[in-house]
Amino acid sequence: MEARQIGRLKDVRRRRDQALVDRLMDRLEREAREPATNIMPVTIELVKARATLGEIVARLRTVWGAYIERPVF
Hints:
Layout: H1 2-15, H2 18-32, H3 40-48, H4 53-64
Helix pairs in contact: 2-3, 2-4
């Protein structure tokens, strides 16, 4: 199952327009740095361009960091 999913992911990445994905990722990062900007439109464009959720989240993590819950007891 894992090998099949990895193969499908590689196939998607091979067939997509990587230059478009790169441009949209850069736009996502720029827009994420602006608090008043809605990032949903560029996120939808990224999904249509076949960017993966992991790629999108990784780029947003470079802007906002990762949330780490601090338990309070």
